[in-house]
Specification:
The chain is of the alpha+beta class. The protein has helices spanning 18-30, 72-83, 113-145, 158-193, 203-230, 233-258, 264-287, 290-293, 358-374, 421-433; strands at residues 2-3, 6-10, 33-39, 42-47, 54-59, 87-92, 95-100, 325-330, 335-342, 347-354, 379-381, 391-395, 401-404, 408-414. The two termini are 55 Å apart. Keywords: Membrane, Transmembrane, Transmembrane helix.
Length: 434
Amino acid sequence: MIIRYNKWVLFNFLPYEYKALEKYLDDMALKGWKLQSIKGVALKFKKIEPKKITYSVDVMDKVSFFDGKNSDSALEYREYCKAAGWDFVCEREKIQVYCSESKIDRVPIHTDEKEKFNCIFKASLKYVLLSLFTVIMFLFTQCMITIGGYNVNFLANNSQLFSLFIVSMFIINEVIGTINFIIWAVKGKRRLKREGEVSYNYFKVVKIKRIICKFMLIIFLLYIMSIAIMGEIFALKISAVIFLIAGAMSILMNFVSKTKYKKKRKINIISYVVIIIFTTIIINGLIFSKVFFYYGGKDNKIKKDNYILTLKDFNDEAAEEGSLYTNENNSFLASTLYYSNKGKNVNLGYELFQSKYEWAVKYDFNNIMNSMKKINIKYIEKETDLPGDIKVYMNEHGHRYIMFSPNKLMEINSWDKNLSEGELLNKIYEEVFK
């Protein structure tokens, strides 16, 4: 992204891939862009006259994530580099960036190959562990919202499917990055045993990671636009909370980092812990709130009772205005309808899941059965006169039926008790499945 004389680019890398960053910065200088700062995976450049600038990216493992900017060890090393003709540009945690417009050799922090490898390995490992922690947090949240729920209604919500796709892409990217790191570490240790040099040239790997990062950003922006257009209140709340907390964390960390407090490392650690706990409480509160159970649904309290199975089919009508509640969701994979209405003689309630994909219906059925097993509720298959592709199950307490075909699944939790079981099932078959 370019705004006037400033340019921002995405560049995600691990410390052991630092050579790729050096080459990229050298190339950008020749194109007329000089590095100003690094924040997360974003590099900020300013416009200059194209010229040759040599960059040196140094990894300092002894600089903690919580030291903030201008730690004592970093300042000491900068003085050494300045005396050698290198100008300090910026830093990001354990990464220090220097540049020089003179033709001088890059300044190595470590002259011993083994010492250099151990330093870069430890620094990279800490980033990998942090990424794995983030992956676990995303997995937990997505599991609670989607695959870990009682049913699979997320398949009928484009917003949830979009979110699941983005998180899956992120997880795959992080897992691949972890595997690459392990391969590099194993190869590096083998080369050291043979008294060889460890390779840090991972230009192609970083290029692929940058492409994936750009793709994920585009998908994420499309996701934000889609939930705004579709009015997905729950998803907007989650996104707003994440953005606000991320912004607050960035402002707080930036403020503390610039201070000269002797105890700023402790302040940073406490701030991180408090923010993580606060974030977890808020997000879990939203997830387990009433909004979650009807996530993505619109407020469909309407007066017209014209759905696939209604009180009229049982020769009844609503007891009072406003007793009808419905919740509908539709996606490119499936659709769901939750229906509840209190009649003068009958209370009718059901949930209908439909999909043109048989695997989706089977997945929904298996998920419901597994959820019921966890709370020791058994479902018994009923023998009926219905067509062979229509299966009927009743729970052991006799107050809930599940009826499904290759493309539809209905859970019935309240109905006309005056009807016999056969009459009820035939009525549902005629109105819903036939």
